[in-house]
Protein backbone atom coordinates (compact mmCIF):
# COMPACT_ATOMS: atom_id res chain seq x y z
CA UNK A 1 0.00 0.00 0.00
CA UNK A 2 1.30 3.46 -0.89
CA UNK A 3 2.16 5.62 2.11
CA UNK A 4 -0.49 8.21 2.76
CA UNK A 5 0.31 11.87 2.20
CA UNK A 6 0.43 13.84 5.43
CA UNK A 7 -0.14 17.52 6.13
CA UNK A 8 1.17 18.80 9.46
CA UNK A 9 -0.42 22.00 10.75
CA UNK A 10 1.54 23.74 13.50
CA UNK A 11 4.66 22.00 12.20
CA UNK A 12 7.17 24.38 13.76
CA UNK A 13 5.73 23.91 17.25
CA UNK A 14 7.10 21.86 20.11
CA UNK A 15 5.37 18.59 19.22
CA UNK A 16 4.62 19.60 15.62
CA UNK A 17 8.27 19.63 14.56
CA UNK A 18 8.66 16.07 15.83
CA UNK A 19 5.54 14.97 13.98
CA UNK A 20 7.04 16.35 10.77
CA UNK A 21 10.29 14.47 11.48
CA UNK A 22 8.50 11.20 12.23
CA UNK A 23 6.35 11.48 9.12
CA UNK A 24 9.44 11.98 6.95
CA UNK A 25 11.29 9.15 8.76
CA UNK A 26 8.39 6.74 8.18
CA UNK A 27 8.44 7.55 4.46
CA UNK A 28 5.24 9.56 4.13
CA UNK A 29 5.11 12.29 1.51
CA UNK A 30 5.03 15.12 4.04
CA UNK A 31 3.51 18.57 3.66
CA UNK A 32 3.92 21.32 6.23
CA UNK A 33 1.65 24.33 6.50
CA UNK A 34 3.52 27.61 6.15
CA UNK A 35 1.52 30.50 7.56
CA UNK A 36 2.20 33.97 6.14
CA UNK A 37 1.59 35.25 9.71
CA UNK A 38 5.01 33.98 10.80
CA UNK A 39 6.33 37.08 9.05
CA UNK A 40 9.83 37.85 10.29
CA UNK A 41 10.02 34.94 12.71
CA UNK A 42 13.32 33.70 11.34
CA UNK A 43 13.48 30.66 13.63
CA UNK A 44 10.19 29.34 12.26
CA UNK A 45 11.17 30.08 8.70
CA UNK A 46 14.54 28.35 9.08
CA UNK A 47 12.84 25.32 10.58
CA UNK A 48 10.44 25.16 7.63
CA UNK A 49 13.38 25.39 5.21
CA UNK A 50 15.10 22.63 7.13
CA UNK A 51 11.99 20.42 6.67
CA UNK A 52 12.09 21.24 2.97
CA UNK A 53 15.71 20.14 2.74
CA UNK A 54 14.69 16.88 4.37
CA UNK A 55 12.10 16.34 1.65
CA UNK A 56 8.95 18.01 2.98
CA UNK A 57 6.81 20.27 0.83
CA UNK A 58 5.81 23.60 2.26
CA UNK A 59 2.21 24.67 1.64
CA UNK A 60 1.24 28.29 2.12
CA UNK A 61 -2.09 28.80 3.83
CA UNK A 62 -3.66 31.03 6.45
CA UNK A 63 -6.31 30.46 9.07
CA UNK A 64 -7.86 33.74 7.99
CA UNK A 65 -8.39 32.37 4.47
CA UNK A 66 -10.61 29.27 4.44
CA UNK A 67 -10.02 28.73 0.71
CA UNK A 68 -6.29 28.42 1.27
CA UNK A 69 -6.90 25.81 3.99
CA UNK A 70 -9.23 23.83 1.74
CA UNK A 71 -6.62 23.87 -1.03
CA UNK A 72 -3.92 22.72 1.38
CA UNK A 73 -6.04 19.90 2.75
CA UNK A 74 -6.94 18.70 -0.79
CA UNK A 75 -3.26 17.84 -1.38
CA UNK A 76 -3.16 15.06 1.22
CA UNK A 77 -4.83 12.00 2.75
CA UNK A 78 -4.07 12.70 6.39
CA UNK A 79 -4.11 15.95 8.37
CA UNK A 80 -2.35 16.25 11.71
CA UNK A 81 -2.81 19.37 13.78
CA UNK A 82 -0.41 20.35 16.56
CA UNK A 83 -1.71 23.76 17.46
CA UNK A 84 -0.79 25.07 20.88
CA UNK A 85 -3.14 24.21 23.69
CA UNK A 86 -2.34 26.13 26.86
CA UNK A 87 -1.55 29.67 27.94
CA UNK A 88 1.94 28.52 28.83
CA UNK A 89 2.62 28.52 25.10
CA UNK A 90 -0.25 30.70 23.75
CA UNK A 91 -3.79 29.53 23.31
CA UNK A 92 -5.23 28.77 19.89
CA UNK A 93 -6.72 25.32 20.03
CA UNK A 94 -10.15 26.56 18.91
CA UNK A 95 -8.63 27.83 15.67
CA UNK A 96 -8.88 24.20 14.67
CA UNK A 97 -12.59 24.67 14.00
CA UNK A 98 -11.50 26.46 10.82
CA UNK A 99 -9.42 23.46 9.86
CA UNK A 100 -12.33 21.11 10.56
CA UNK A 101 -14.46 23.28 8.27
CA UNK A 102 -11.81 23.07 5.55
CA UNK A 103 -11.50 19.28 5.88
CA UNK A 104 -15.28 18.92 5.69
CA UNK A 105 -15.46 21.05 2.58
CA UNK A 106 -12.50 19.33 0.88
CA UNK A 107 -14.05 15.92 1.55
CA UNK A 108 -10.95 13.87 0.67
CA UNK A 109 -9.27 13.43 4.06
CA UNK A 110 -9.05 9.83 5.27
CA UNK A 111 -7.80 10.63 8.76
CA UNK A 112 -7.56 13.69 10.98
CA UNK A 113 -5.50 13.85 14.16
CA UNK A 114 -6.53 17.02 15.99
CA UNK A 115 -4.29 18.72 18.51
CA UNK A 116 -4.69 16.54 21.58
CA UNK A 117 -1.47 14.84 22.71
CA UNK A 118 -2.12 15.06 26.43
CA UNK A 119 -4.69 13.99 28.99
CA UNK A 120 -7.87 12.55 27.49
CA UNK A 121 -10.22 15.56 27.47
CA UNK A 122 -13.21 13.19 27.50
CA UNK A 123 -12.15 12.13 30.99
CA UNK A 124 -11.59 15.67 32.30
CA UNK A 125 -15.16 16.90 32.65
CA UNK A 126 -14.48 17.55 36.34
CA UNK A 127 -11.20 19.45 35.82
CA UNK A 128 -10.62 22.65 37.79
CA UNK A 129 -10.56 26.15 36.33
CA UNK A 130 -8.82 27.55 34.40
CA UNK A 131 -6.96 24.39 33.37
CA UNK A 132 -10.20 22.85 32.16
CA UNK A 133 -10.56 25.38 29.34
CA UNK A 134 -8.18 23.49 27.07
CA UNK A 135 -10.11 20.24 27.67
CA UNK A 136 -13.47 21.90 27.02
CA UNK A 137 -12.13 23.35 23.80
CA UNK A 138 -10.64 20.04 22.68
CA UNK A 139 -14.08 18.47 23.28
CA UNK A 140 -15.67 21.22 21.20
CA UNK A 141 -13.27 20.39 18.37
CA UNK A 142 -14.09 16.66 18.74
CA UNK A 143 -17.79 17.45 18.48
CA UNK A 144 -17.23 19.38 15.24
CA UNK A 145 -15.11 16.54 13.82
CA UNK A 146 -17.71 13.91 14.63
CA UNK A 147 -20.63 16.02 13.40
CA UNK A 148 -18.80 16.48 10.09
CA UNK A 149 -18.18 12.69 10.00
CA UNK A 150 -14.46 13.23 9.53
CA UNK A 151 -12.46 10.04 10.21
CA UNK A 152 -10.25 10.69 13.23
CA UNK A 153 -7.73 9.36 15.71
CA UNK A 154 -7.28 11.01 19.10
CA UNK A 155 -3.80 10.64 20.55
CA UNK A 156 -3.70 10.68 24.33
CA UNK A 157 0.04 11.11 24.82
CA UNK A 158 0.15 11.57 28.61
CA UNK A 159 3.12 13.51 30.02
CA UNK A 160 5.74 14.99 27.70
CA UNK A 161 9.11 14.12 29.25
CA UNK A 162 10.43 17.63 28.60
CA UNK A 163 7.85 19.14 30.95
CA UNK A 164 7.52 16.34 33.50
CA UNK A 165 10.68 14.21 33.67
CA UNK A 166 13.86 16.31 33.33
CA UNK A 167 12.64 18.35 36.31
CA UNK A 168 11.37 15.35 38.32
CA UNK A 169 7.95 17.01 37.89
CA UNK A 170 8.92 20.22 39.69
CA UNK A 171 6.96 23.12 38.23
CA UNK A 172 9.63 25.78 38.71
CA UNK A 173 12.28 24.33 36.44
CA UNK A 174 12.97 22.06 33.47
CA UNK A 175 16.11 20.47 34.97
CA UNK A 176 16.57 18.28 38.04
CA UNK A 177 16.56 19.97 41.46
CA UNK A 178 19.96 20.06 43.17
CA UNK A 179 19.11 19.44 46.84
CA UNK A 180 15.39 19.24 47.57
CA UNK A 181 12.64 17.61 45.59
CA UNK A 182 9.00 18.37 46.36
CA UNK A 183 6.78 15.32 46.24
CA UNK A 184 3.10 15.50 45.36
CA UNK A 185 1.56 13.88 48.43
CA UNK A 186 3.30 10.58 49.09
CA UNK A 187 4.75 10.63 45.57
CA UNK A 188 3.31 7.21 44.81
CA UNK A 189 0.56 8.10 42.33
CA UNK A 190 1.34 6.65 38.90
CA UNK A 191 1.59 8.80 35.80
CA UNK A 192 2.79 8.00 32.28
CA UNK A 193 5.82 9.68 30.72
CA UNK A 194 6.89 9.78 27.08
CA UNK A 195 9.81 11.05 25.13
CA UNK A 196 8.35 13.52 22.65
CA UNK A 197 10.02 11.78 19.70
CA UNK A 198 8.28 8.54 20.69
CA UNK A 199 4.95 10.38 20.84
CA UNK A 200 5.51 11.47 17.26
CA UNK A 201 6.59 7.98 16.16
CA UNK A 202 3.47 6.38 17.63
CA UNK A 203 1.19 9.11 16.29
CA UNK A 204 2.45 8.63 12.73
CA UNK A 205 2.09 4.84 13.07
CA UNK A 206 -1.64 5.23 13.73
CA UNK A 207 -2.51 7.19 10.60
CA UNK A 208 -2.67 4.29 8.11
CA UNK A 209 -3.86 1.76 10.65
CA UNK A 210 -7.48 0.58 10.37
CA UNK A 211 -7.36 -0.47 14.04
CA UNK A 212 -7.12 3.18 15.11
CA UNK A 213 -9.90 4.55 12.92
CA UNK A 214 -12.31 6.71 14.96
CA UNK A 215 -10.61 5.73 18.18
CA UNK A 216 -8.63 7.18 21.03
CA UNK A 217 -5.11 5.77 21.19
CA UNK A 218 -3.51 6.00 24.61
CA UNK A 219 0.29 6.03 24.74
CA UNK A 220 0.85 3.96 27.85
CA UNK A 221 4.04 1.92 27.40
CA UNK A 222 4.25 -0.31 30.50
CA UNK A 223 7.79 0.55 31.62
CA UNK A 224 6.96 4.27 31.52
CA UNK A 225 4.05 4.03 33.95
CA UNK A 226 5.85 5.49 36.95
CA UNK A 227 5.29 7.33 40.19
CA UNK A 228 7.14 10.55 40.96
CA UNK A 229 9.09 8.61 43.60
CA UNK A 230 10.26 6.14 40.97
CA UNK A 231 11.46 9.01 38.77
CA UNK A 232 13.34 10.49 41.70
CA UNK A 233 14.95 7.11 42.46
CA UNK A 234 16.08 6.79 38.86
CA UNK A 235 17.68 10.21 39.05
CA UNK A 236 19.34 9.47 42.39
CA UNK A 237 20.93 6.34 40.89
CA UNK A 238 22.19 8.29 37.86
CA UNK A 239 23.48 11.29 39.78
CA UNK A 240 24.84 9.31 42.72
CA UNK A 241 23.20 11.84 45.04
CA UNK A 242 20.29 11.52 47.44
CA UNK A 243 17.77 14.36 47.39
CA UNK A 244 15.92 15.66 50.39
CA UNK A 245 12.23 14.88 49.93
CA UNK A 246 9.48 17.20 51.08
CA UNK A 247 5.89 16.17 50.69
CA UNK A 248 3.26 18.74 49.68
CA UNK A 249 -0.36 18.02 50.55
CA UNK A 250 -2.96 18.56 47.84
CA UNK A 251 -4.43 21.37 49.96
CA UNK A 252 -1.11 23.21 50.23
CA UNK A 253 -0.46 22.67 46.53
CA UNK A 254 -3.77 24.24 45.49
CA UNK A 255 -3.82 27.01 48.13
CA UNK A 256 -1.69 29.64 46.30
CA UNK A 257 -3.76 29.31 43.08
CA UNK A 258 -5.45 32.71 43.26
CA UNK A 259 -2.20 34.63 43.38
CA UNK A 260 -0.72 32.97 40.28
CA UNK A 261 -0.92 34.15 36.70
CA UNK A 262 -3.28 32.37 34.33
CA UNK A 263 -0.66 30.09 32.79
CA UNK A 264 0.62 28.92 36.16
CA UNK A 265 -2.94 28.34 37.39
CA UNK A 266 -3.51 26.16 34.38
CA UNK A 267 -0.32 24.24 35.14
CA UNK A 268 -1.23 23.75 38.81
CA UNK A 269 -4.61 22.34 37.83
CA UNK A 270 -3.06 19.93 35.34
CA UNK A 271 -0.37 18.79 37.76
CA UNK A 272 -3.04 18.32 40.43
CA UNK A 273 -5.12 16.00 38.28
CA UNK A 274 -2.08 14.03 37.17
CA UNK A 275 -0.05 13.86 40.37
CA UNK A 276 -2.69 13.70 43.14
CA UNK A 277 -5.78 12.37 41.42
CA UNK A 278 -3.91 9.98 39.12
CA UNK A 279 -6.12 10.86 36.15
CA UNK A 280 -3.73 9.26 33.64
CA UNK A 281 -3.78 5.81 35.23
CA UNK A 282 -6.97 5.51 37.30
CA UNK A 283 -8.87 3.82 34.47
CA UNK A 284 -8.49 0.81 32.23
CA UNK A 285 -8.29 1.27 28.51
CA UNK A 286 -11.64 -0.02 27.27
CA UNK A 287 -12.76 -2.00 24.23
CA UNK A 288 -13.45 1.21 22.34
CA UNK A 289 -9.84 2.42 22.55
CA UNK A 290 -6.30 1.17 21.87
CA UNK A 291 -2.90 1.31 23.55
CA UNK A 292 0.03 2.25 21.35
CA UNK A 293 2.79 -0.04 22.68
CA UNK A 294 0.46 -3.01 22.21
CA UNK A 295 -0.39 -1.97 18.66
CA UNK A 296 3.27 -1.28 17.78
CA UNK A 297 5.51 -3.54 19.88
CA UNK A 298 8.34 -2.93 17.37
CA UNK A 299 8.81 0.63 18.66
CA UNK A 300 11.72 0.73 21.09
CA UNK A 301 10.34 3.45 23.30
CA UNK A 302 12.70 5.50 25.46
CA UNK A 303 12.77 4.43 29.11
CA UNK A 304 12.90 7.31 31.56
CA UNK A 305 16.19 6.27 33.17
CA UNK A 306 17.71 6.55 29.66
CA UNK A 307 15.97 9.88 29.14
CA UNK A 308 17.34 11.27 32.40
CA UNK A 309 20.97 10.41 31.54
CA UNK A 310 21.33 13.61 29.51
CA UNK A 311 20.94 15.62 32.73
CA UNK A 312 23.65 13.76 34.65
P1 LIG B 1 3.16 25.14 20.55
O1 LIG B 1 2.94 26.17 21.58
O2 LIG B 1 4.56 24.71 20.30
O3 LIG B 1 2.48 25.68 19.22
C1 LIG B 1 2.25 24.85 18.12
C2 LIG B 1 1.87 25.64 16.91
O4 LIG B 1 0.64 26.29 17.07
C3 LIG B 1 2.80 26.77 16.53
O5 LIG B 1 4.00 26.31 16.04
C4 LIG B 1 1.96 27.48 15.49
O6 LIG B 1 2.08 26.90 14.21
C5 LIG B 1 0.55 27.17 15.96
N1 LIG B 1 -0.12 28.41 16.29
C6 LIG B 1 0.08 29.21 17.36
N2 LIG B 1 -0.69 30.29 17.27
C7 LIG B 1 -1.39 30.19 16.11
C8 LIG B 1 -2.37 30.99 15.45
N3 LIG B 1 -2.77 32.15 15.98
N4 LIG B 1 -2.88 30.56 14.29
C9 LIG B 1 -2.48 29.41 13.76
N5 LIG B 1 -1.56 28.60 14.33
C10 LIG B 1 -1.03 29.00 15.49
O7 LIG B 1 2.26 23.84 20.86
P2 LIG B 1 2.63 22.53 21.67
O8 LIG B 1 3.43 21.64 20.80
O9 LIG B 1 3.13 22.90 23.01
O10 LIG B 1 1.17 21.90 21.89
C11 LIG B 1 0.54 21.04 20.96
C12 LIG B 1 -0.47 20.14 21.67
O11 LIG B 1 0.21 19.34 22.64
C13 LIG B 1 -1.58 20.88 22.42
O12 LIG B 1 -2.79 20.20 22.21
C14 LIG B 1 -1.17 20.77 23.88
O13 LIG B 1 -2.26 20.74 24.77
C15 LIG B 1 -0.42 19.47 23.92
N6 LIG B 1 0.62 19.46 24.95
C16 LIG B 1 0.73 18.35 25.74
C17 LIG B 1 1.72 18.27 26.71
C18 LIG B 1 1.85 17.05 27.53
O14 LIG B 1 2.66 17.00 28.46
N7 LIG B 1 1.11 16.02 27.23
C19 LIG B 1 2.69 19.35 26.90
C20 LIG B 1 2.51 20.46 26.00
C21 LIG B 1 1.50 20.49 25.05
P3 LIG B 1 3.18 27.29 13.11
O15 LIG B 1 4.15 26.16 13.11
O16 LIG B 1 2.40 27.39 11.84
O17 LIG B 1 3.78 28.59 13.52
C1 LIG C 1 1.27 20.52 29.79
C2 LIG C 1 3.63 23.05 32.61
C3 LIG C 1 4.93 22.83 33.08
C4 LIG C 1 2.90 24.13 33.09
C5 LIG C 1 -1.16 17.66 29.39
C6 LIG C 1 3.47 25.00 34.03
C7 LIG C 1 -2.06 19.54 28.16
C8 LIG C 1 -2.17 18.24 28.58
C9 LIG C 1 -0.32 15.66 30.39
O1 LIG C 1 2.27 23.53 28.31
O2 LIG C 1 -0.37 22.93 31.99
O3 LIG C 1 6.74 23.55 34.55
O4 LIG C 1 -1.32 16.35 29.72
O5 LIG C 1 5.33 25.61 35.43
O6 LIG C 1 -3.24 17.47 28.22
C10 LIG C 1 2.21 22.71 30.56
C11 LIG C 1 0.96 21.90 30.35
C12 LIG C 1 3.08 22.07 31.62
C13 LIG C 1 2.99 22.88 29.31
C14 LIG C 1 0.22 21.76 31.65
C15 LIG C 1 0.04 19.75 29.37
C16 LIG C 1 -0.08 18.42 29.78
C17 LIG C 1 -0.96 20.28 28.56
C18 LIG C 1 5.48 23.68 34.02
C19 LIG C 1 4.75 24.78 34.50
C20 LIG C 1 7.55 22.56 34.12
Automatic annotation (TrEMBL):
Q: Which SUPFAM superfamilies match?
A: NAD(P)-binding Rossmann-fold domains (SSF51735)
Asked if the record carries the keyword Nucleus, the reply is no
Question: Cross-referenced InterPro entries, in alphabetical order?
Answer: NAD(P)-bd_dom_sf (IPR036291), NmrA-like (IPR008030), NmrA-type/Isoflavone_red_sf (IPR050608), PCBER-like (IPR045312)
* Superkingdom, taxonomy of origin: Eukaryota
* Location of the NmrA-like domain: 3-308
Gene Ontology MF terms: oxidoreductase activity, acting on NAD(P)H, oxygen as acceptor; pinoresinol reductase activity
Name used for this protein in its record: NmrA-like domain-containing protein
- Provide the species name: Eucalyptus grandis
